[in-house]
Amino acid sequence: MLVEENRICNSGKTDAPFFAWPWENFGNYKYLLYGPLIAKVLYSMAGEGNKEDTWCLHILILFVLRGLVHQLCSTYSNLLFLNRTRRLNQQGINFNQIDAEWHWDNFLILQAIVASFSYLCFPSLANLPIWDIRGTVCCLILHMGISEPLYYWMHRLLHSNILFPSYHWLHHSSKVPHPFTAGHATFLEHLLLCVIVGIPTLGTAFLGYGSISMMYSYVLGFDFLRCFGHTNVEVIPHSLFEAIPLLKYIIYTPTYHSLHHVDTRTNFCLFMPLYDLLWKTINANSWDLHKQICTKTNDRVPDFVFLAHVVDVMSAMHAPFVFRSFSSIPFGIKPFLFPMWPYTVLVMLIMWAKSKTFLFSFYNLRGRLHQTWVVPRFGFQYFLPFAAEGINNHIEDAILTADKIGVKVISLAALNKNEGLNGAVILKEIPQDVDEVFLTGATSKLGRAIALYLARRGVKVLMLTQSTERFIKVQKEASVDRQKFLVQVTKYQAAKNCKTWIIGKWMTPREQSWAPSRTHFHQFVVPPIIPFRRDCTYGKLAAMKLPEDVEGLGSCEYTMERGVVHACHAGGVVHLLEGWEHNEVGAINVDQIDVVWDAALRHGLKPLQI
């Protein structure tokens, strides 16, 4: 049965009655369904309606608060630096699962519609008092006595041979539990869940003990416990159950519910394992696994670490623990980011004062764990002279920590960077028929390697540098017959007829204006230059697509597309896959550029464009 359900999760039906949501094709326009409620609230506030219309406002407030509960639980679930040792399923959430759960909040719209009809059918619901302690007791009794057993048997029916392949497979298709997984189910299942929620809330109101506080507390508590069970992080200490043994049958844990996603024949309860005990469906490993998770450190040492930093205030919100869906697409400025900007600035200041390098994300590739650690500094801080020592200390501490715990490869990003594969990616983008390029940042570590490599190809390199001494030093590294291809220039005007510019130093719009029409700007400068010229084209920072067999990757690296990483990240991946033991520090070995490139292609990394 278990094997069969796993197979169904990969190829379940989608044409069953009430499987799809009525507004499935609306996209984000589905939120317009709240329009009538908003209009009624505005109408009432304008003094045209009556005060009993406040029920519309309560439904809208509950929608916002319920969304906030799910978002906060999602944030906690993705704070890897806090909870990595208590994670239950060690796999990462991939893009497919994120896309499948994108509209996890459909049920909030459904329940708002059901609540609206309830108020319209029973006007007395609009006159509930703010508080009634009897209602709280009554609500709990109805939940424990009716909703819990009813949900248990509904859940077991959904695992039957008829209903599972038609409906419930969708929920179990999410391989790694997450708070948004709680809402990922079919329209029919959430209609049934409306009944489960309605029995304690409406039942209490019809018995005459209803109150506004009871409605809020039950609905929000219900959502929290649903999210709690899907967080994939154990938070309840096992010592609590040892002190109060009865408690383990009163409230479930993330460990308890995670076992249901592993063994779908057990642990069917809503929140109370008591009903699994009564009908003999408790997983025998429930308490042993809970104790194991709580008492043992489950902290696997990564094989590879990519040491990054925050780019700017806006992109700081492009993180899985801020907005999971947003972080799964390439970063871009969105209107909803602006209200959060002041809070992000405050977080930046706190990070500057207190934070240490932290774990940001991870994925697996061919049995090896790859992690991204983030230095708690923003891009502009790298250009502040008084901040340099602190940044260097963070980088040094991260490298020493990685070495101490046994990390095999650590690769530095952007302004931290090790430039390994960057040169190869840029050089392979340059067409073979190009015979002249203009190079800025020409005597830098990467600029030098690019100049020497192109000179070997017989390409004339106009090297922009004010230092004749540094230019001559680079030129002498070329063979005698190739030195003529390296030419020093001191002004941008010298490249006014060259249509291939390689940018390794920040350029102003005025400096870009010297490029002829149809010039292509290749870049290895951080941050990238502003694309000022509409008659020219601009390349992105050097990057490569990870191999197809990468697992658990669910966030985009800054502006990169899904599955694409910066070349300095890809270089570290190649270093690990090749099993190289040398350190890629100091001057770039020009002879190794093609070696690294060929190794990257051999391991399945793909260039974005050639």
UniProtKB/TrEMBL annotation:
Residues 437-607 form the Very-long-chain aldehyde decarbonylase CER1-like C-terminal domain. Its main location: membrane. It is a multi-pass membrane protein. Residues 141-281 form the Fatty acid hydroxylase domain. The chain crosses the membrane at residues 102-122, 190-209. One of its GO terms (cellular component) is membrane. The keyword Transport does not apply. Keywords: Membrane, Transmembrane, Transmembrane helix. The keyword Nucleotide-binding does not apply. It is found in: Membrane. It comes from the Eukaryota. Belongs to the sterol desaturase family. This is Protein ECERIFERUM 3.
